[in-house]
Amino acid sequence: MMILYYFYPACSLAAHICLEESGLPFEARVVDLKDPAKEAEYKKINPRGRVPVLIANDGRVLSENVAIMTYVADLAPQAKLLPSDPEARAQCMSFLLWGASTAHINFRMSFRPYRFSADPATHEAIAAAGRQNFWENLEDIDKRLAGQDWIMGKDFSAADGYALRFYDWGRIAKHPVETLKAFTAHKDRLLARPAVKKVLQREGSPLVA
User: What is the value of pTM for the model shown?
Assistant: First the structure.
């Protein structure tokens, strides 16, 4: 059985949702990255000390959200986590990669500016830039969702779980995410999905009761 290592409120939520939606058997193991001893033990699995990590059925270790989601989607084509049409699949991958390389980085800048500069004098400016850029990223997702149910249009995909992580980060950062009407409606549609609700409850997310 595959094993997913996750931590709330890390980006691992995206891979976690993808796995639950796939219907594939897996075990979810939480990693307390705030505990130095547990983090040190976890680094024996992933030396980078980051989540998510997926232990595949053959025991090999796979890291990085987009890689894990693509792997799971290919193992469970019936779940349609990635579009089968080449152009639509490329568009979905484009959103996932933008999430990992842009939205995620902007959020990290706003909360951990010390990872981007060793000079404390620059941290406030870095955090402010990250916060502004991340809000603009949330607005971009809201515009994309206007008039459609899911990131890819009429069909749910792996991209939607990633978008939920960004919405929740916006809430954590105290951005006025509730003013993003299309994005908030998208969040509500996701919360109505049994697999998504199960994952959020497992992770202890305040998005669900």
Answer: 0.96
- State the first-to-last Cα distance of the chain, in angstroms, to the nearest integer: 29
CA dihedral 113, 165, 197, 153 (to 10 degrees): 180
Instruction: Return all residues near 12 (Cβ < 8 A) that are at least 6 apart.
Output: 4, 5, 6, 51, 52, 65
Separation between Cα atoms, residue 144 and residue 9, nearest integer Å:
24
Tell me the residue type at 77.
Answer: P
Band (34; pLDDT cuts 50, 70, 90):
confident
Q: What's the confidence (pLDDT) of residue 108?
A: 97
CA atoms within 13 A on the CB side of 97: 7
Looking only at the bridges linking them, the beta strands covering 53-55 and 2-6 are antiparallel
Q: How far is CA 100 from CA 65, 94, 119, 159, in A?
A: 8, 10, 25, 11
- Residues 23-46 as b or e (16 or more Cβ within 10 Å = b): eeebebebbeeeeeeeeeebeeeb
pLDDT band at 209 (very low <50, low <70, confident <90, very high): low
* Residues 60, 64: Cα–Cα separation, whole Å: 14
For residues 143 and 124, give the distance between their C-alpha atoms in angstroms, rounded to a whole number: 29
